[in-house]
Amino acid sequence: MTTDHDADDELLDDETLEKLQAMEARAYAAFDAGDLADAATLFGELIAVTPDIPHLHYMRGLAHKYLRDWPLSLQDNLRSEQLRDGLDEGTAWNAGIAATGAGDWAEARRQWTRCGITLPEGEGPIDGNFGVACVRLNPWSSGETVYMRRLDPVRARLENVPLPESGFRFGDIVLHDGASTGRRTYGEREVPVFNAMQRLQQSDMATHAVFVQCDGPEDIAALRALTLPGIGLVEDWTHSVRHLCLRCSYGTPHQHGDDRHDGDEAWARERNLGIAAQGRAAVEKLMAVWTSAGRGRVLESIEHREHPLPDPEPGQVWWLGQENAEEPSP
Asked: Any alpha helices (H) in the chain, and if so which ranges?
């Protein structure tokens, strides 16, 4: 079978074809090395000579996607779509992601519909229920993994209180990639893990690190049960936050030599809490109510520090899943 790529090759002389093949090899090598700007430039030079090859537009769109340049990625993927006879699912998904990142809701809805995804009716941002999943925040950096509730195929609201260093907040709306990079347990089932691409909307619930002492888990349960204005969520980081190896962070937890189950360790009185709140005053009121309602409850300090969202550096290949990622050397 002759492909469009083969047909274009037949129109080129041998010397030109050899140069283009060498350039294409360099473009793929740059992409594989995480040199996305160079890859986009090289694929663009190829497109200038052979503008009707769809996979070149797709690959430049992929480079622009991981550069998080949504208008250019959308443009590339729409051109890739135009040059194909039928639906190419990869092109459609990347066009949908780029359209979502760019806020082009009409185009995003069109692409998801092309992929056979049922959406809530209406115009503008999609506000659906696509279930719970996990998201790796800043996958090019710390890669903290939290739960999220999906609003559409690639947009979700964070359901945990992330660590302040992540730069993210409880309730943030994030854009995530379309390909799962692993699985994590949620209740009695497993849910997919996706890489976060960008924060689209910041929550008004700032993260406060709160250090307390208390006698047992019932004290933390009582704190979590309190409902006061301006409080979004209380999370016991001492219980929930674990530093994971690469394999675990990608959603394949496994036994470590020093692993212990919750029931195997004594209760630690000193607890590190993450509290999402609209302001410090709300946290102070919450803690005052909690400490006065039970014996042995001690508030040590309330800290609030804002951290910027880190950007990926050239040369990072952060989008690969666990099956393509190597375990770090011991």
From this structure: 4-10, 14-32, 36-49, 54-66, 70-82, 89-102, 105-114, 217-225, 237-240, 246-249, 280-292
